[in-house]
Design a protein that fits this description.
The chain is mainly β. The chain contains no helices and 11 strands. Strands 2, 4, 5, 6, 9, 10 and 11 form a 7-stranded mixed β-sheet that branches. Strands 1-3-8-7 form a 4-stranded antiparallel β-sheet, with no helix packed on it. A hairpin with a 5-residue loop joins strand 4 and strand 5.
Length: 123
């Protein structure tokens, strides 16, 4: 099992940037893929980005491609989500999660989740 703690959310204006962090503990961090997912009010939880255990492969949702960057530092047991050019539609609770399988875009493949951090983008 993996314990995950996110930080870095906040209230920003459209066009601003934020960097989310997620610190993991439990299973050896470098042995599993990580993802960021989000849930906006009244909507289903959706995939945002994922990164392989080595950091060499990344996936992005089309809605964030070119604006968001996922990265990881295995020495610090931390995964990051750099969010640039934020839009009001990016407003959501952002969760980091550990994948129980290979790198995935599927919500169901993420078995361990953090508590989430709120990101609010005003227009």
């Amino acid at each position: 099992q993996v314990q995950l703690v996110e930080s870095g959310g906040g209230l920003v204006q459209a066009g601003d940037s934020l960097r989310l962090s997620c610190v993991a503990s439990g299973r050896p961090f470098s042995t599993y893929s990580m993802g960021w997912l989000r849930q906006a009010p009244g909507k289903e939880r959706e995939f945002v980005a994922a990164i392989s255990w080595s950091g060499g492969i990344t996936y992005y949702a089309d809605s964030v491609k070119g604006r968001f960057t996922i990265s990881r530092d295995n020495a610090k047991n931390t995964v990051y989500l750099q969010m640039n050019s934020l839009k009001p539609e990016d407003t959501a609770v952002y969760y980091c999660a550990a994948s129980g399988s290979a790198l995935s875009r599927r919500i169901d493949d993420y078995g361990d989740w953090g508590q989430g951090t709120q990101v609010t983008v005003s227009s």
